[in-house]
Amino acid sequence: GVESKARPSTAPTLPKRDLPNAPSTSGGITSAPPDTDIKITDETLEESLKSSKWQVRKASYSFLRDRITIFLSGNEPASQLISCEIHSALDASVPTALMDKIAGSLDEALLLSVLYVDCCQGARLEENARKIMASLVKGNAFASSKTSTLNSSEELVLKLI
Questions:
Q1: Cα-atom radius of gyration of the chain, to the nearest Å?
Q2: Residues 83, 121: contact at Cβ < 8 Å?
Q3: Cβ atoms of residues 11 and 34 within 8 Å
């Protein structure tokens, strides 16, 4: 397969990519730089989605979001992308991602799920929508104290109705 240009999983804005990877010292506390060395490819995606490291799972969810965006590339209307062209197990991967127990990777899974529901035909199938909703209810999305997680969870529910 072709290596996709997935954005670093922890850099929300482009300028941060240009900063040196030296540890920063602030108030006597030293913090390591975010791990931007995680590389996800088509060949490693399936394994990365199941990784025991939340940072790798988060990068995998980001990789899938990027793939959907690349496949969409301005094509309208939404809900027309064929899920298996993006990833062979995308329809099954979304509900599994929503069961992530780590807040950082769960937030990325929610962003992936919202984009998936907006753009992919598989999300329109009743069985897939039911699995997504079950994962939301059984997982940690609504148990989170983070406003952004709750907002993304509610947005996803409303899109599925």
A1: 16
A2: yes
A3: yes
pLDDT of residue 5: 44
User: If you ran DSSP here, which 8-state letter would residue 30 be given?
Assistant: E
pLDDT along the chain (161 residues), means of 10: 42 33 37 63 95 97 94 71 92 97 96 94 93 96 93 94 86
Q: Residues 149, 106: contact at Cβ < 8 Å?
A: yes
Secondary structure of 97-118 in HEC code, one letter for each residue: HCCCCCHHHHHHHHHHHHHHHH
For residue 79, what pLDDT is reported? 66
| Cα dihedral across residues 42, 47, 50, 53: positive or negative | negative
**Which amino acid is located at 41 in the chain?**
T
CA distance 150 to 156: 10
Q: pLDDT value at position 76?
A: 61
